[in-house]
Design brief:
With 367 residues, this protein is an alpha/beta fold. It has 12 helices and 13 strands.
Length: 367
């Protein structure tokens, strides 16, 4: 009886310890992989210092993406350790091809903050190829190369990466995922040299996949990671059970077709609105929470995608706040996971108290 008791207690202890470690890894996975887009197109947002303090003290988010190089925001994140990604405006891209301009840009916008603020990446424009602006598109890769040269000259190239985010509009074909290809013309003249740059500098290829904009009433479950019949890719024999994986693997296939399947893919933006127009489906807080909550669990699980298994995916949720000055349909102003007063629009487990409570609930279940 005593031996049975000891064996029983030992087994229970192993289970408890294993689950506790798994819970810790889960929270750390969220901390290390999930970031947020911090947009500022609103007239009711809190001061940057308050935002930085809130993210540091109250959430498990440890990285943010900015759409500019606002010095007030960069100063606000000083001494927080939060990894910050900044953005060069699209209009500055042609000038950035000139080394003197690139060096001055780094000196003015980056170097004043590097001692205190953890700037880890500079994005050259946003969805540049989708602008169909020949000057911007033709200048994109040269601008990235020149900016990299400026970072090398400033001895910042080992701590700051250079990249640029793309919409899925760069694909000419995406279904099934194994047939993914980049648009003809852009593939060899822009994206191939761009991917060569990423390989040479060990920087990621960034994409902005939005299942929300691609789904219909028939594919809503597929978009939200809900149980569904899935989509079978006959070329690979792989079954896709969610739209995000299919979108990412279409990008991967397009990269592989050009010979660059070794370049890391990062999700620069993805999200789901909590409010929208009457013609749109699934635009409510419950559905938004479902997408973003399932998204976090999926990209931090280590499962990867069917063509990119056994990996976590660095992901930036769009967006930190609802932005009341954004143009376009109602949904564009309601992608935020927090209200301007920093109360959650919905709960997806990124508040430290929520994450700790969830771990405690799981932990106590074994006692």
């Amino acid at each position: 009886m005593a031996e049975e008791f000891i064996c029983s207690m030992s087994s229970r202890l192993v289970i408890v310890i294993s689950f506790f470690l798994a819970s810790t890894v889960l929270v750390r996975g969220v901390e290390g992989t999930i970031g947020v887009n911090y947009g500022t197109l609103a007239n009711n947002l809190p001061p940057p210092a308050q935002v930085a303090h809130f993210l540091l003290k109250s959430t498990v988010i440890d990285r943010v993406r900015l759409f500019d190089t606002n010095p007030d925001i960069l100063r606000a994140f000083a001494h927080t350790g939060i990894a910050v990604t900044v953005t060069v405006p699209n209009d500055d891209i042609p000038n950035l091809t000139k080394l003197i301009f690139a060096q001055q840009w780094v000196e003015d916008n980056i170097q004043p903050h590097t001692l205190a603020t953890n700037i880890v990446r500079i994005l050259v424009g946003n969805e540049v190829i989708s602008t169909v602006n020949k000057l911007l598109i033709g200048s994109l890769v040269p601008a990235m190369q020149t900016l990299q040269t400026a970072l090398v000259a400033a001895s910042l190239d080992r701590r700051i990466q250079v990249s640029t985010p793309h919409s899925l509009g760069i694909l000419s074909n995406s279904s099934p995922p194994s047939t993914g290809k980049f648009r003809q013309g852009y593939d060899t003249h822009v994206l191939k040299p761009l991917l060569s740059f990423h390989r040479a500098t060990n920087s990621p290829f960034m994409v902005n996949p939005y299942p929300f904009f691609a789904c219909s009433a028939d594919t809503l479950d597929y978009a939200l990671f809900r149980p569904n019949a899935g989509v079978f890719d006959e070329n690979t024999g792989l079954l896709y059970t969610n739209m995000l994986d299919a979108q990412l693997d279409a990008i991967y296939s397009a990269m592989k077709y050009l010979g660059f399947n070794d370049v890391e893919i990062v999700i620069g933006e993805t999200g789901w609105p909590s409010m929208g127009d009457s013609a749109q489906i699934g635009v409510d807080a419950k559905t938004a929470a479902e997408y973003n909550g399932n998204l976090i669990r999926h990209v931090t699980s280590g499962a990867g995608t069917p063509l990119m298994p056994n990996r976590t995916i660095e992901t930036y949720i769009f967006a930190l706040f609802n932005e009341d000055l954004k143009p376009g349909p109602t949904c564009e102003r309601n992608f935020g996971i927090f209200q301007p007063n920093m109360t959650p629009v919905y709960d997806i487990g990124i508040l430290k108290a929520t994450a700790a409570a969830a771990a405690n609930i799981h932990h106590s279940a074994f006692y």
